[in-house]
Amino acid sequence: MEETNEEVQENTEETATEVAKPKRTPQEEYDYHKGRTERLAKKLGIKDKVELVKNTQTDKPSELDYGQLALLRTEGIKGSGEVALFKEIMAETGKGVLEVLDSNYFKSRLTDFRGTQESLNAIPKGKGRSGQTGATDIDISIAKYKEDGTLPSDFKARIAVVKALEAEEKSGGMFEGPSVVGRR
């Protein structure tokens, strides 16, 4: 039997059409193998081992890989707070990285987050900054005593007012007395 050139070409064309099957995405491939594993485990009666395989998966949809983090950096999303906001919205909506980046919902939440962070960063922190203290009941009672001479009716408040007035009298005389410079 002699093979002619036409027969060889015919055989190569058949193999080329067999290879042209559409490729599965990695997620489709994973789902396919997962389904086969579950069917085989059910057939063999080993449910516990399949559940163990399910629990030991390391794929976390909320975790971003380095490529996605790099994409976020190029889009101007920096800092742990902004990335956490991105992950939160991605988990809420169930959308992919690009869909979340393009969504108006994410953009509005990001501008709100940045606005609150900006206002929080505008307030100085540290030892050099003292906060304003509001007027306490004792301060009000002291002012009332100085104005019309009445002490509060509450016993504890009255004691606190008297002690505060005594402390004020002791420290108040620092610059009083005869002048060293004299009158001019």
What descriptive keywords fit this protein?
184 residues, mainly alpha, elongated
**Structural Rg:** 39 Å
The class by helix and strand makeup works out as mainly alpha
Could you list the spans in which at least 5 consecutive residues all have pLDDT below 50? 55-60
Strand runs, count: 0
- Global morphology: elongated
Estimated share of beta-strand residues: under 5%
Count, helices: 9
Mean pLDDT: 78
Q: Which percent bin holds the helix content?
A: 55-70%
Order of helices and strands: HHHHHHHHH
* Largest β-sheet summary: none
The span between the termini is 138 Å
Question: What would a concise description of this structure say?
Answer:
The protein is mostly helical. The chain is built from 9 helices and no strands.
Question: Helices and strands in order, then pairings?
Answer:
Layout: H1 5-19, H2 26-44, H3 47-55, H4 66-74, H5 80-93, H6 97-102, H7 104-122, H8 137-148, H9 155-172
Helix pairs in contact: 5-7, 8-9
Please tell me about this protein's structure.
This protein has 184 residues and is mostly helical. Among the domains are: 29 residues, no CATH class; 57 residues, no CATH class; 29 residues, no CATH class. It is 66% helix and 0% strand. The protein is built from nine helices and no strands. Helix 5 packs antiparallel against helix 7. The radius of gyration is 39 Å and the shape is elongated. The N and C termini lie far apart (138 Å).
